[in-house]
Amino acid sequence: MRIAVDAMGGDQGAHEVVRGVIDAARRSSAHFFLVGDATLLEAELSKARPRPSNVEVIAASQIIEMCDEPVAAFKKKPDSSVVVAARMVKEKKADALVTIGNTGAAMAVSLLTWGRIKGIDRPAIATPLPSLAGTVILLDAGATPDCDPNNLYEFAVMGSVYAECLFGVKRPRIGIVSNGEEESKGNQLVKRTHALFKQVINSSSPFQFVGNVEGKDIFRGGADVVVCDGFVGNVVLKTGEGVAEMVLKLIKEELGRHTWMKPFLIPIMPALRNLRRRIDYAERGGAPLLGVNGICIIGHGRSNAYAVTNACKAAERAVQQSVTETIRRRICEMPTPPPE
Amino acid sequence: MRIAVDAMGGDQGAHEVVRGVIDAARRSSAHFFLVGDATLLEAELSKARPRPSNVEVIAASQIIEMCDEPVAAFKKKPDSSVVVAARMVKEKKADALVTIGNTGAAMAVSLLTWGRIKGIDRPAIATPLPSLAGTVILLDAGATPDCDPNNLYEFAVMGSVYAECLFGVKRPRIGIVSNGEEESKGNQLVKRTHALFKQVINSSSPFQFVGNVEGKDIFRGGADVVVCDGFVGNVVLKTGEGVAEMVLKLIKEELGRHTWMKPFLIPIMPALRNLRRRIDYAERGGAPLLGVNGICIIGHGRSNAYAVTNACKAAERAVQQSVTETIRRRICEMPTPPPE
């Protein structure tokens, strides 16, 4: 198995990506390509003792920056690290792409280089989130801001495959993000989607429909997969991040208020660190762009080496479990939604 | 000033509402009406020592339950506590309504009893949320799930008035909840709303437009008021609640993991309690339904006595500051948005 890693994206620089890939390579029999500025990447790589034999540098002379407009950047920068890495997958020189760069560019590049899976109208980013029960997969987290019920139906199919393949969930429970649990709740999109799901998903389907899920219940573990349009998904994701960050900052503020408290804090620091780890995006290792003809794992721009390692692991597992093939098969097997 | 309180809503029973109102009455010169089951309320009230002279029981024989369908309940239960309380405002026997019952019913009852403010097409619930800078007002939090740009413009006008009147913010900074800060980001609604705001809001407007606000930035304090449709607003609110709850549960879990840790926790408990207080909905004291011809403060169904007291204070302040009048005046003064 061969993983092509776009080494030039990310807020923390190539150094962090290289460290993450080296760590992934040491624990794996897969072959890793570090794609980007060859001189820089060789220099970073040569710092590793011993240098892992299953990591190889592939030169790419351009970089798509965080501020670049995705489609324009794809056209103007054919030798950028993410485009070169995607092309390797297209040409069957690699089995998956991992990137922590510009998310919009990763989507545009994957979509334009590989095309969509037949039967999938729009792609979706499936983000694994922490929940009290472990992990819940949210999609779409931002690929398709405006959706119709059919799009959400395809997201349900793709999300169920990902929950099965990556997290070993049998007959995943699918929910629709809404402003209330009752069937009567929701905006127009949610109401129409609810009606469609009830009509098409039944006891012989490879996944279950558990109805609407309120924002606060997403994290309680009542569903394995929650679907919504990419606008709402992105807002859920970022709101969650913002609140978790605020609570952790306020804890720090409250506990740091009195110096006499300090000695009492030392013994509980490991517990607080463990807490941060449990709600940390890095633990969950990147989100796949589903619906395209290839495996693309997108990591958070803030990813550190540890998050990069986890994104590489997710890519390996997605290849092993033939996620793309399974989606292609399942979307064919599922009944076609009737016209509204 | 007279405040009519629907005493029969809420998950914690009338007992908690009565306690909250008594506490509000003791700190205020306003007159409070407790509307609901007269025998029950008199019994609860008579427990107070001394019994405050500015709290009076008004009989209402019916209750709108949490599960009741709002509009049907309004028609079928004309003697329910919330309907009687709203009628008192309509008949100028009270100046504001406070309820912690069925939110949908509170909206339907206010709207159908009082009507809308002229110039306001759809009402909005304005929820004050904690932020690192203090408080940010989110609207709509659930009154109008499907919106057009004009609705969001009206929300901006109403939210700016509330921020000014209740929180003393001068020329409030208004943001649009979006999936990215850039003007190019957003779903169709957000893009059209952004264009409208840029056209209509300028340096002589009584509020400022600060552009799009991502989910994680809502809580960072970069805007005083953020607007979105009622579906997205409800999802933001509930997601925030869910994540805060999860983080606090995980803290408890992590800190409770080892018994030897207990003695170290005792001195920091006040800090953790203070944290909970700072992110607690109760502190912020209920959300007004804006756009209707009267003041209606809606508290969380889980509200305890303390939250009820704060909701009463918000109602008093909204009356003192003539929030409804100010909205009526400002919506007339603002330029009418041009047709798209």
Query: Spans of chain A of 5+ residues with little confidence (pLDDT < 50)?
Result: none
Write down the secondary-structure element order of chain A.
Answer: EHEHEHHEHEEEHEHEEHHHHEEHH
Q: What's the gyration radius of chain A in Å?
A: 21 Å
CATH architecture assignment name of the domain at 1-115 and 292-323 in chain A: 3-Layer(aba) Sandwich
Percent helix of chain A, as a range, is: 40-55%
What is the CATH domain class of the domain at 1-115 and 292-323 in chain A? Alpha Beta
Give the overall shape of chain A: globular
- CATH superfamily heading of the domain at 1-115 and 292-323 in chain A: Isopropylmalate Dehydrogenase
Largest interface (C-beta under 8 Å): A-B, 61 and 60 residues
By helix and strand content of chain A, what is the structural category?
A: alpha/beta
Main sheet strand line-up of chain A: 3-2-1-4-12-11-5
Can you count the helices of chain A? 13
Tell how many strands the DSSP assignment of chain A holds.
12
User: What integer is the average pLDDT of chain A?
Assistant: 92
Quaternary assembly: homodimer
Distance between the termini of chain A: 43 Å
- Using the coordinates shown, work out and report the CATH topology of the domain at 1-115 and 292-323 in chain A: Isopropylmalate Dehydrogenase
What does this structure look like?
The structure is a homodimer of 340-residue chains. Chain A has 340 residues and is an alpha/beta fold. Chain A has a domain at 1-115 and 292-323: 3-Layer(aba) Sandwich (Isopropylmalate Dehydrogenase), CATH 3.40.718. Helices cover 45% and strands 17% of the residues of chain A. Chain A has helices at 14-26, 38-46, 70-76, 81-90, 103-114, 149-167, 188-200, 230-255, 262-265, 269-278, 281-284, 305-320, 323-333; strands at residues 2-6, 31-36, 55-59, 96-99, 124-125, 127-131, 134-139, 173-178, 208-214, 225-227, 287-290, 295-298. Chain A has a seven-stranded mixed sheet, sandwiched between helices. In chain A, strands 6-7-10-8-9 form a five-stranded mixed sheet, sandwiched between helices. In chain A, α1 links the parallel β1 and β2 (31-36). Chain A is globular. The N and C termini of chain A lie far apart (43 Å). Chains A and B meet through α8 and α10 of A and α8 and α10 of B.
